[in-house]
Amino acid sequence: MKKSKQTYNILLLVAILITMVTISFGVYEYHREHAFRIEILHAQLQLNNYHYLEGNADTTIRITVVDTLGNVVYDTETKDVSNSSNHLQREEIKQAMTEGVGYTVKRTSETNGEKYFYSATRFDDIVVRSSVPYDTPLTATLENDNTFFYYTFGIFILIFIVFYLRNHLAYSEQEKQRIKHQLTENAAHELKTPAATIEGYLETLVSNPNLPDEKRNDFINRCYIQSRRMSNLLQDMNMLTRLDEAVITHPTTEVDIAQILWQIAEETKTQFEKCQIALKLEIPQSLKIQADANLLDSLFRNIFNNTLAYATGATYFAIVAENTSDKILIQLADNGPGVPPEHQQRIFERFYRIDKGRSRRLGGTGLGLAIVKNIVLQYNGKIEASTTPGGGLTLTISLPK
Length: 401
Fold this sequence. Notes:
Number of strands: 12
Strand content: 15-25%
Strand order of the largest sheet: 2-1-5-4-3
Radius of gyration: 43 Å
C-alpha cells in the first residue's frame, strides 16, 4: 500500500510538471506567433513605404508623409494638411526617427476616429507612414493559428485521461486485493470455529475409546453438522469467487422466474408452516427472462432461507412481482424484526452479520445475501433493502430484460 501511494505521488508530480511545461510552452508559442504575424504585416507596409518613393505605392493603403519636425506634409485622405496635428510624439514616428522604422499595432486616428495599424520608415528628411484600418480582415490576418494550442490542449487532456485511468485501475486493483484479503481473513475466521469443534470432538473420541455408544454417536453427529457448515461455507465462497471473476457464463436460455418462485415456495412450504409464516405469492403466470436458471434459483433460494432464519416472529412472507416492458420488478417482504436502517445497505457485504452469535448458531455462512447481490449485478440489475411498512424487511429486485 505504501509503495502504491509513492507511485501515485510520483505520477501526480510528473503529471503536474508536464502540465505546467505544456501550458507555459503553449502561452510562449501563442505570443511568439502573434509577434511573428505582426512582423510580417509590418514588413509588407514597409515595402509599401519604399514603393511610395518609387511612385507605385498601393493606392488602397493610406499614406502619410511627415517631416523631421513632425509636421504632416502629405496625407492621401486629407487634402488640407495645414490643420493636422504634429506627429512627432506618435510612437511609430518616434521609433522611425531614432531607429529608421517603427510601428504601432492599434491606435485611434485623430483625423477620422478609426483604429489603424501604422508602419513608418524614415528616408533622410522625411518619414513615410503606411496605415491600414484595424478592421475584421486585419484582425483575421493577425489572429493566431490555434492549431498548436488545440494540439497542446489535446495532449493535456490525454495526459489527464491516462493519469486518471492509471489511478482508477490501480485503485480498483487495490480494492480488489483488499476485498480478497478481507474475504480470506473472514473465511479463515469462519472456518476456525467448526474446524476447532470437529477437532475437539474427534480428539475426545480418539482419547476415549470406551465412550458409551449414545455419547459417541452424539459426538459424531455434531462433527457431521460442523462439517456440513464448513462445506456450505466453501460452496458459497466458491460461488462468490466465480461471480467475481466472471467465470459464470450467461446462457441465452429463456427462464421463467415465476416458475422458479413457485417451485421454491412449494419446497419450503413445510418449513414456513413450522415457523408459522404464511407464504403469499402475487406474481404473473409468466416472468420470462434470458438468464441462467441455476443462478436465479440460487438467488431466490438464498432469500427464502434468509427469511426462514432471521424473520423471527413474522406472520407472512410476501412475494409481489411485476412484468414491465423493459424489466422485471420483484418485492420480497416479511413483517419480522427487520433490519435497522443503518445496517440495510451493509447486509449484502460478505460475512456481515447484525447478530453474529445468532447467525452462527443458526448455521449461516454470512454469504447468502452477498451471493444474491452478486447474481443480480451479473445481469446488470439492482437490489435494495428497505423497511416493510409496519416493520420487517423488504428486498426489491430489478432485473432488466
